[in-house]
Amino acid sequence: MAHTKAAGSTKLGRDSAGKRLGVKTSGGTMVKNGNIIVRQRGTRFEVGAGTAMGTDQTIYAIRAGIVNFTTKQVTKFSGQKVRRKFVSVEPAAPVKEPAK
Q1: How would residue 19 be classed by pLDDT, with cut points 50, 70 and 90?
Q2: CB under 8 Å to 43, separation ≥6 — which residues?
Q3: Concatenated DSSP letters for 42-59?
Q4: pLDDT surpasses 90 at 15
Q5: Looking at 14-18, 43-47, 54-58, 59-63, which range is the least confident one?
Q6: Inter-residue contact 22 to 58 (CB < 8 Å)
């Protein structure tokens, strides 16, 4: 005989929560040392000057400054040229106080 399982039993409903990945700080924004700039899986963005990468490929600032996103053409070991996106933190120019 064909039977239906007891109420409450299902084969669906095992979706995981979103991991909140993506760019957290836009270009031209001022950041402090340790601020997260990009959360990612894999290396969609690569580290540039003033940034470092954590064990989960999170890119964060290692100095205070202004975030800058750039695209560069890089040559792989095979000789193939590819475009890569880099994130860097440029030191901010010191702000001069007006003389009193």
Answers
A1: very high
A2: 53, 57
A3: S-SEEE-TTEEE-TTS-E
A4: no
A5: 14-18
A6: no
Residue 2 tokens, joined:
């064909």
pTM of the model: 0.78
Q: Which has the closest alpha carbon to 30: 94, 99, 92?
A: 92
The type of residue at 87 is V
**Burial, 17: exposed, middle or buried (Cβ in 10 Å; 0-12, 13-18, 19+)?**
exposed
Amino acid at 43: T
CA distance 46 to 36: 14
What pLDDT does residue 35 have? 96
Give the type of residue at 35.
N
- Write the CA distances from 7 to 3, 12, 70, 98, integer angstroms: 12, 14, 55, 74
